[in-house]
Amino acid sequence: MDFSFFRNTPKPNNIKKIYNYEIMSFPEKNKYFGNYTGTYPKQAAQKAFTFLSTLVGDEIKKDGNFVVFSIRKKNANNQENMNKVHKFIGTIVELENYVYNSRINKKVKLKNVISKYNPELEKIKSSNIKIKYRN
User: Fold this and answer.
1) What is the pLDDT of residue 60?
2) What Å distances lie between residue 54 and 16, 25, 57, 61, 64, CA to CA?
């Protein structure tokens, strides 16, 4: 009887490669900064946003403030996807209740939220934005 399906070893094609990314046009235009790793661009973008949000400080914690940033793959040996730019938008939200973060062994009330940047946002004028609050 073959019990090979009980083995817990990963197949070689299931191994995910980790890539290095850098923030574009930071700290000044046409400069690149950092080394943020991730299997996917969003994982690296979360790390990059954590860095950027510490630089911005309390300004980002105010309602309606956000950071738009771009990252690109940092891999000098392989030119594949080297020029592809991944643009993200991020903000910090205050949670209603404290949540325990096991990674840092601490209760937190703030959470970083990032998502891919939608170019349609550039068409919206600030006077057209209306926010409704529910109590």
Assistant:
1) 82
2) 29, 18, 5, 11, 17
